[in-house]
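Researcher: Structure prediction, please.
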Amino acid sequence: MFKKSKLLLFTSATFAIGCLNILIYWRSKDTLHDAILIFAECARNSGRTAAALNLFIIALLIIWRLNKIDTSATKTLLFQLSLFMFAINHVIHFYFVSKNFEIHNWSVGIIDNLHGFITYLLILIAPVIALFYISLNHLLYAFFILHIINVTYFIGISFYGRIKPIDPAYMHQIGILIMFASILLMLTEIFRNWSKEFKQE
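Model: Predicted structure follows.
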């Protein structure tokens, strides 16, 4: 499963995501003079990184289709690597969020946010599944599609939460529209593919 070259690639990806989030932290620390705001800003920007990575994964599924990714070693590797980078970024994002909650003395119980907790676990599990079971059966195919839709939903509602009467947050509104359009396009491609396979049978 892991050749030296593949291990080096995944290690480099981890390093790259780590460096990006360090830059996010230092930029927030350098531009914000109120320590209370630093981790909130870090969480927002690492969340935006997650949104970009998620859109890239959706783009892969639109261009290649999920059920065709395992026909090419390059496609398989890029899909696995994208899920892995998204998971690593989310671990760091969770750290920023938890520090922000700690500073503000906020608390969120698992039961109160069970959907979010399960989603976070699935974000960590998804790259492991992709590494071990890239030859997709119908169950895994459905899992990845629903997982991507669910993750996009969570990113979308976090963007929506930034929209206020005093701050329209137009970039977040555009981001929501792009994510919604991407999901629709992905589902359209899936339906078209299924229709072709049904006609061939």
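Model: Residues 73-104 form the longest helix (32 residues).
Researcher: Thanks, that helps.
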